[in-house]
Amino acid sequence: MPSGRTHDRITIWVLPVLVGATFWQTRNGNITLLIATGFMLGGLMFGPDLDIYSVQYQRWGWFKWIWLPYQKSLRHRSFLSHGPVIGTALRVLYFTSFISVVTVIVLLIGEKSGNLTLNWHSLVDSIANTVVIHKAEFIALFLGLEFGAMSHYLSDWTGSTYKRIKKQGIRQYLKGLANNGKIKKRKRVVRKRKVKSK
Length: 198
Known about the structure:
Blueprint: H1 4-26, H2 29-44, H3 55-58, H4 68-73, H5 79-82, H6 86-112, H7 120-133, H8 135-168, H9 170-178
Helix pairs in contact: 1-2, 1-8, 2-8, 6-8, 8-9
Protein name: Metal-binding protein
Keywords: Membrane, Transmembrane, Transmembrane helix
Pfam families: DUF2227
């Protein structure tokens, strides 16, 4: 499995290719920009390794605590975190839910303090209209996030496959694939975090 620094390099090296291919396909600078932004976010900050104490997790700085429940509920490299499309969709759903709850709390506090008057029905309608009107932009951003995550989990899978072939040999590896896709699973290693003494 590549290190965080290797994943970062892969993201940065693939970006020009992605931008060129996207612009060539869409002929749209805005869509290309959104896909490229999503790709960089997905590769550097919003990727599959948010399920562990990783470089991506640490980049959130003071806000990394947002991802603690996500980490506690998912096993590293599970299908829900590293699965194609489902991993990105789950992270977007998790983050959007968190932002929604915080926004509602802030708006309620503002409304109760008398500093803000809200029509909740028109607010929900406004958000729904924004999503409908800018559907293509939201899809482009999601695709960019998925491409960024894809660069991550494809390099993980490639690295793991290479290590298995190196350890077992190509014949044994292919034989394992031929046996109904059953490959020897690696042992799960539980690592304890070092605790600083006072």
